[in-house]
User: Fold this.
Amino acid sequence: MEFKGHVNVCCHRIEFRYDIGRLRPNAKTLERLEDEARNRARELIIDGCGQGELNCLAGGKEIRGWWRIESISA
Assistant:
């Protein structure tokens, strides 16, 4: 199962997704994953990256994912 979403970081719209497997996340866990995506994307955008890996400990489990700057169509 996946958890996907969007956040705004450094004037960019960021798309993120996590592979949560069979974990049944509560609202606090989902908020933690979203915060981690926002914070990690901010760090890497400042370093010049446009996408990167996510790794978060939530619900007692290591949850891995990916973020990227969403492309904008003209």
